[in-house]
Write a structure and sequence with these properties.
The protein contains seven helices and four strands. By secondary structure, the chain is an alpha/beta fold.
Amino acid sequence: HVDSTLRHHVAALAQLKGKIPSIDLERAGVFGHSGGGFASTRALLLYPGVYKAAVSSAGAHDLLRLYGPGWGHRYIGPYKGNEALYEKLSNPAYADRLEDDLFLIHGEADSEVTIAHTQQLVDALIKANKDFDLLYVPGADHGLMNHDYTAKRRWRFFRERLYPAHDR
């Protein structure tokens, strides 16, 4: 489960800082695509202040309810009777916890993780009055992580948020 994996990542960062002085946790960022997009966003939502910035591309933010018919049913069980678990595993349910910098990227032609995942999260973030950055890429499919423009924007976001004194 991604929540326990994130808990381990947070613990590892703390241990590494103690052993490697050059690790600057004031500039920790996280990036993920697809399931990793879910996880990078979730890292900000569940562990505020640990990662200062996250980029989430094609995030499967409501994996159990929106990702492919039967996916959640196969791995978690039917929705009926498991509503609370489905909600718990949905990023929009935690939108009100956002404190750090989040950049969401999604291709409008993504048939693997439909744009509805990001739209649902955007709606929840707006309702929670949270600030975030958003980029929809016209015509882009699920491979947009390797798209030159999104790569440039991703690294610019990290540079601006994590190293603002170095920004031109």
